[in-house]
Amino acid sequence: MLQIQYGRSLTKEIKDNKPKSKINGLFQLWTVDTIDIKGKKYYLLVEKATGMPLLLTNLEIKQFHDVIQGVVKDFIFITPTQQNKLIEIFKTDKINFVYNNRSTNVKAFKSIKDMLENNINVFLQLTDLADSKTSQVKKLVTASAAIPTLNFEVGNNMFTKLILNVNETFPIPASRGHFIATTEFEDLLKWKQYEGKAKRGNAKIVKEVRKNNLKICWNFMQQDKLDPYTIEPGLLADFLNYYLLQKKILFPTSNLAEATSYIWLKTVKEQYYGDLLTDFIKIFIEFYRFLAEVGLITEKDANLVAENLHYLHVELQKNNNYIFKENSLAELKLENKSRNNMTYEIKAQLRDFKPVMWRQFIISGNSTVAELEQTVLYIFNAEFGHMYDLYNLKCHQRFGISTFDDESLDPEKAKVSFFTQNTNLLLVYDYGDNWQFDVKIEKVYQSKQPLLHPQIIAGKGYGIIDDIGGVYELQEYYDTPKSKLDPDLLDWLGERIDLDKFDIDNLNMGLAK
């Protein structure tokens, strides 16, 4: 039953008041309040579980249905099947209004209302509320969709919760194919009893699954029919070993819709467009076809994933005006001699770990990009036992030697002076554990004396632990009391590593050698 809670401001307007009752189910509980937009009264509704906002001009069930249906149809981060199931939820004849004076003071609602009120002018530029030629419903759909874009953090949090809730409520499980026995990797049925269970407390099983996932990835990438895609191969490992294993033990067969959600999130966050997006989509379609060939899913399942991803691709291209300008890599000058003697001040940060681990350091423009890569990894305590590459995703450039990309730039021939101030880079280390470091060129300036070696200025946190399983395993290690840590993990480490420790003097001594 759909329930909308309201506060004191609407007591005179809403007469059909019902007693408060416990609500279960997705999108069933909302909070409403009025909001003034350039002298006109609107109703702002915010869904409790996800923070999803709606903007209406009245509280009648028909307008609610029409607007929510239009908004859901724009949810390209879920599959068309899931969109239709979600719309079915709202096919009710009545809304129950419940008075709750505290509802409009809840932080989740108040933050969205404050955000909208404080950004009205920007909001109006994103919408067509004043356009008399556009239908009322269409204007409200556009306006509702524009609200989360006013703040990246709020929007990202909302979409992440939406994806999680929809995929848990409306999963699209794969059908079982005829598995072809192989010595290369094991059948996922081996861990079937753990599917959907919490990752915490199942460290040994998670480790086994991740190891098997890497074998599946490796076998997939070895196929002769695959083109040398420009997308980094670590994305498949990231999808299988981190995205699907964030909190629960899930497999690529658990929910075929997860591929759509993952690609949408990555595209928005990393700005994968043009040929890069096409390759991204293509490699996932081929991966699911591979799963069908080895019998982990059926051909029908693989075709469904392909259909969903083609739909996502078309919709992403519709909504994006960014066009890649292809570079002729052979013609690129890999240094700027006028900046070779300048000092580069750079900030590097480990992705997806809390509290944030970061380093502020300086390096000469005359240093090679390979030296920059090595500096970042060294100051985060990497052991250099795995491959690594540096990406400038906006310019579609990769610095590194890789069998998956014939157009990589040689980091030994490129210099730091190649980069300009405010350039954002991504360093990926170990395509199994998939450590990712955001690297930003913050300042470029002339020094009184040439810089002989890199030097750390400031930072926080120890760094990474090689082969622990990646950032999510590192986070679990950090959050778990020593008394509850897996004994096998402690035995492997030798001693507990203090991830809050940051020895700047020792690291700088190493950089000076």
From TrEMBL:
Matching entries from SUPFAM superfamilies are given as:
MM3350-like
Q: Pfam families attached here?
A: PRiA4_ORF3
Fetch the InterPro entries from UniProt: MM3350-like_sf, Plasmid_pRiA4b_Orf3-like
Q: Which residues form the Plasmid pRiA4b Orf3-like domain?
A: 343-505
Give the protein's recorded name: Plasmid pRiA4b Orf3-like domain-containing protein
Q: Name the source organism.
A: Lactobacillus ultunensis DSM 16047
